[in-house]
From TrEMBL:
Organism placement in taxonomy: Bacteria, Pseudomonadati, Planctomycetota, Planctomycetia, Isosphaerales
Positions in coiled-coil regions: none
Cited CDD domains: YajQ_like (cd11740)
Cellular-component GO terms for this entry: cytosol
GO molecular function per UniProt: nucleotide binding
SUPFAM superfamilies, A to Z: YajQ-like
Record protein name field: Nucleotide-binding protein OJF2_20930
Function: Nucleotide-binding protein.
Length: 165
C-alpha cells in the first residue's frame, strides 16, 4: 500500500482524428453552394503541425474555420488546440491564415501548474519533464483532486491526464 501513484499532465491531439476532421471539412467545402467557384480550401501540414486556410475574403475565411471547428468537435478533437495566426493577403486576391496546433505543455504554464499544485497543500509532488508535468503521490484521492483542480483552473489549451497508475 506504500506504493506511489502518478500521472502525467500533457497537451496533445489525436492526429488521426485531426486528419479525418480536416478531410471532412474539405469535402463539405467542395460541395457547399456558398463555396462554389471560390478558392476556399484547407491544407494540413503534419510535420509543422499547421493548417493553412485559404479563402477569397475574411468573411469566407471565418466560415471555413467554422466548418473546420464543427468537424473537429464532432470527432472529439479539442477546438481550443487551434492557435490562430495572422490573416495575410495571398496571391490572386485571396487571404490566408496559418493555424498552429498546440502540443505539449509550455514551460511557463508547466511552472504555474507546479506552483498551483504546491499551493493545494496536498501530499503530492509535481515535476516538469520536457513538455509534460508528472505528478506523484501516495493516495489516489489526492491525485484525483489535483486532476479536478487542473481541469477547472488549467491553461487555455486542452490538457490530458495520462498514465494514471
Amino acid at each position: 500500500m506504500a506504493d506511489n501513484h502518478s500521472f502525467d499532465v500533457v497537451s496533445e491531439i489525436n492526429h488521426v482524428e485531426m486528419h479525418n476532421a480536416i478531410d471532412q471539412a474539405q469535402r463539405e467545402i467542395a460541395v457547399r453552394y456558398d463555396f462554389k467557384g471560390t478558392k476556399a480550401s484547407l491544407e494540413f501540414d503534419k510535420k509543422e503541425n499547421a493548417i493553412t486556410v485559404l479563402a477569397n475574403h475574411k468573411g469566407q475565411l471565418d466560415t471555413v474555420l467554422q466548418v473546420l471547428k464543427e468537424k473537429m468537435a464532432k470527432r472529439g478533437v479539442p477546438v481550443k488546440a487551434l492557435i490562430r495566426g495572422k490573416v495575410e493577403d495571398a496571391s490572386h486576391d485571396t487571404v490566408r491564415e496559418v493555424l498552429k496546433l498546440h502540443t505539449g505543455v509550455d514551460t511557463e504554464d508547466a511552472r504555474k501548474i507546479v506552483k498551483d499544485i504546491k499551493q493545494l497543500k496536498l501530499k503530492v509532488q509535481a515535476q516538469i519533464m520536457e513538455d509534460k508535468v508528472r505528478v506523484t503521490g501516495k493516495k489516489l484521492d489526492e491525485l484525483q483532486a489535483v486532476i479536478a483542480y487542473l481541469k477547472e483552473h488549467g491553461p487555455e489549451y486542452p490538457l490530458q491526464f495520462v498514465n494514471l497508475t
